[in-house]
From TrEMBL:
Pfam families named in the record: DUF4118, HATPase_c, HisKA_2
Reactions catalysed according to its record: ATP + protein L-histidine = ADP + protein N-phospho-L-histidine
Organism per entry: Sphingobium tyrosinilyticum
Name the UniProt record assigns to this protein: histidine kinase
Primary enzyme class: transferase
Main location per the UniProt record: membrane
SUPFAM superfamilies (UniProt xref): ATPase domain of HSP90 chaperone/DNA topoisomerase II/histidine kinase
EC number(s) on file: 2.7.13.3
């Protein structure tokens, strides 16, 4: 209801098919005001000649604009002078009459001026709102086009790396090219899915479920079971959600490649939100980690990338052995990082 009223106010003054209609309707308001004043004459004390005419002037100005309002003010002034202001036999009117007319002219003049300024302000506000809406639509269109082009470029680079890999005989070099191509392709998919120009965020539970399914499918392993647990309706802004998704992808890939290289198993991805602190745990039931293992000195490029991304988010990233067997990747993000 409120939005409907706002739109109606912004359309004022009304544009009638012919300008004469506005003056005729204003004259009708003045006639109604005169009829009300005559009907209430016995109830009112002596004086108050303009008591019913002010609403007619205000209504005419409010609905039809300044000029019909001035017309209504003049017409109401003449009607009230003719019917309700007693004239002096000597000069036609005395000082009291002059004071009453000045008071009436001042009041209706202020009313007309205020209504006119308000309607001009509403008009300018409506113009600015429409301009802002058009700019927002253009911004969203350009944003989607930019994201589309960036994602396509990443896919093209990944495809070029895959083609180049066919001409490489060295096993380590071929694996490095494969890893680089898969990471570029993954970044493109994550960016397209998570970046939102409205900064409204995306349901992380649903997204992480799709992401982990893609990682497992890309590994070609059908014996890996991944479960995702996250608070319902948890959303993060894109500058946090994208690195977080990359960390999840790298940790799940590392668990498949190093924790479960020769047998099936399970990977549990848990996201907890406690007192503003976000905790991510990725646990597998694989072969675990070697004693004294350190991420920075290890051979896993994925874990080093995940650790660097965690540093960008001002979070704490660690890899620990799981008491019941396997390994646990843990990421703690402070509240201010979100």
């Amino acid at each position: 209801m409120q939005r409907t009223n706002e739109r109606f106010v912004e359309r004022l003054p009304l544009l009638l098919p012919r300008p004469i209609y506005a003056y005729l309707l204003s004259a009708l308001f003045c006639g109604i005001a005169l009829g009300l004043r005559l009907s209430a004459q016995r109830l009112l004390p002596i004086g108050y000649p303009f008591v019913s005419f002010f609403p007619a002037v205000i209504l005419s100005t409010f609905l039809f604009g300044m000029r019909p309002g001035i017309f209504a003010a003049i017409l109401c002034g003449l009607l009230s002078w003719f019917f309700f202001i007693p004239a002096s036999p000597a000069v036609g009117f005395d000082g009291g009459v002059v004071l009453a007319l000045i008071f009436y002219a001042a009041v209706v003049g202020i009313d007309i001026a205020l209504i006119h300024l308000m309607q001009r302000a509403n008009f300018n506000l409506a113009v600015e709102r429409e301009r802002s809406r058009a700019l927002a639509e253009n911004r969203e269109l350009l944003f989607h086009e930019l994201q589309h082009r960036v994602s396509n470029n990443l896919q093209v680079v990944a495809a070029m790396l895959s083609l180049q890999r066919r001409h490489v005989d060295h096993e380590l070099a071929a694996r490095a090219l494969d890893d680089a191509a898969s990471r570029l392709s993954l970044i493109g998919r994550i960016s397209r899915a998570l970046y939102d120009p409205s900064e409204g965020g995306q349901d992380l539970h649903a997204f992480l479920t799709r992401l982990t399914e893609d990682v497992v499918e890309a590994s070609g392993r059908g014996d890996i079971n991944v479960t995702v647990s996250a608070p319902p309706d948890l959303t993060l802004e894109s500058h946090v959600a994208v690195p977080l998704a990359l960390i999840v992808a790298e940790a799940v890939s590392n668990a498949i490649e190093h924790g479960l290289p020769h047998r099936g198993g399970s990977i549990d991805v848990t996201l907890e939100d406690s007192s503003g602190t976000l905790t991510l745990k990725i646990a597998d039931n694989g072969q675990g980690i070697a004693p004294g293992f350190e991420i920075d000195k290890g051979s896993s490029l994925g874990l080093r990338i995940a650790s660097a991304l965690a540093g960008q988010l001002r979070g704490q990233f660690a890899l620990h052995p799981r008491p019941e067997g396997g390994a646990v990747v843990r990421l703690d993000l402070p509240a201010q990082a979100r």
